[in-house]
Structure formats: structure tokens, C-alpha cells
Input
Amino acid sequence: MKPSHIEHIGIAVKSLDETIPFYEKMLGTKCYAIEEVKDQKVKTAFLKVGQTKIELLESTDPEGPIGKFIEKRGEGIHHIAYAVEDIKSHLKEAEESGIKLIDQQPRKGAEGLDIAFLHPKYTFGVLTEFCEDKS
Ligand code: ZN
Output
């Protein structure tokens, strides 16, 4: 496994309307995309810091993964996503080294990336995402 860089950091928030202006001011840049990812029950907003993005995640359903996360742990860092080439071989290698996968196969995430999550119990408490930009 050898990610090229941190693609994004996912931050769970209660309200995009409240947090976007804060991050725009703090990072001195405009939010450049807002997108709903229906199967994850989230609305996402993206800002860029260098080549790394900040992905703000607002739940659209209290039963969704972000809704449950906020209820249990409050707002805060939800996951770290590493950019990889050949996501399938990274998943295979992770599994072979004993890491439990949440996604056996990559699926489509925000911005059309292929994404897959590793189980946080096997990554020292950090929900970890691999993503590959095939565009
Ligand atoms: Zn992500």
C-alpha cells in the first residue's frame, strides 16, 4: 500500500449552512461543490487546501452513518481519505494484512471517485477511506 497523498478529510457537521462560511473564512477559499450522496444519506460540501480537500458532511437522515456518528460522538473528524492508484489492489493488500474491509468492492462516492472504507476497529480508531480518481 502506498497512497500518494491525503485526498480529503471528512468532517461530520450538523449544518452545512453554518459551517461552510466558517471554513471559507478560516481557509480563505470558497466552497466549490455541494453534492448529495443519496446512498450515504449525506450532503457534502468541498473546499480545497492545496491538493487536499476538506469534505463537510451533513446528514440527511438521522439513521444514516453521519447521523448516527453525530449522535454518538458529536461533530468532528469522521474519516481520512487517501488517494491511491489501483484501489482494488490496495483493498486486497489491506485485507491480506488482516484489516477488515467495510467495502469489499469500490463504489461511487462524491465527485465521481471510486471509494472504499476500512473498518476503524482495525485502523486504530480512524475510519479510513481509499479513493481513486479514474477521470
Ligand atoms: Zn470521504
Remarks:
- Residues 16-27 form the longest helix (12 residues).
- The pocket of zinc ion is lined by residues 8, 10, 55, 79, 81, 129 (CB under 6 Å).
- The beta strands are 5-13, 33-37, 42-49, 52-59, 76-83, 107-108, 114-118, 128-132.
- The chain has one domain: 5-132.
